[in-house]
Amino acid sequence: xxxxxxxxxxALYQALEKKSEVERLKVLKRFLAMLEKxxxxxxxxxxxxxxxxxxxxxxxxxxxxxxxxxPLPTNVRDTIEKQLGKPMLVSEKVNADLLAGLxxxxxxxxxxxxxGRTRLTHLFT
Amino acid sequence: VQELIRQFGxxxxxxxxxxVNFLVLLYLLKRFAYGPVIAMLHERRRKIxxxxxASEDAKKRLAAAEQTRTAIILKAEEEAVxxxxxxxxxxxxxxxxxxxxxxAKSEQVLISGQKKLEEERLKLEDEVRSNAHDLVKTALASxxxxxxPTERDEALIEQAxxxxxxxxx
Lengths: 125, 169
Prior knowledge:
Shape of chain A: elongated
Number of helices of chain A: 5
Helix content of chain A: 40-55%
Number of helices of chain B: 3
Order of helices and strands of chain B: HHH
Radius of gyration of chain B: 66 Å
Helix content of chain B: over 70%
Oligomer: heterodimer
């Protein structure tokens, strides 16, 4: 019987919950072996994405990916967290190709693009 | 009468002999001379008449042939004139068709050329515009990269935070 990536992710989350570091490693090894046996390794990326969502949801966290043209002032992160009203799992990255400004992606869905690159592109379309 | 005959010296016997001689001579002449000669004359006459008749027929046939020849020549001339005029008409029609086709072709070539020219012009305009955009974009990007990051990003960060606030509410 085959399972959906979401079902694998839920099972993995429950198996890893409240386990020590050593036990988690064992669980992960067994999980990967099972995927290999069931020929589901090509679904691993999707399973991990679901796992991340479950993990963040269970802990009440919001995933925020920030990409900026230059390192951001510290208060920006605080302001974002304040506006979201929830603790964040933040990933920050400096990308000079943005030319100016920044992009914010929340939970892989909501995207705010205030980059110079996008403004320039819009200027000529 | 007898006396008279005697006075004339007629000897009945001699006369009779002469008559018999004459008749024999007449018969011989008729049998061997006059007959063949007359037959030959008749034959010659017939031949001459036939020759004359043949000549007449030949003349008539010649005249008829001449008439036919003249008629044929006239007809041929008429046909030739007809053919020539038909050929002239055909040639005129063909010339007109060729001229019309050439005009249409030249018109088509002209239109095609104009269309191609217009396409080239638009393409060139697009290229110039695209190049100008690229140049301006490059210049603006270069300017943005040279600016002070804090001053440069301040407004954009503020806009992003405002947008986040609006979206999240």
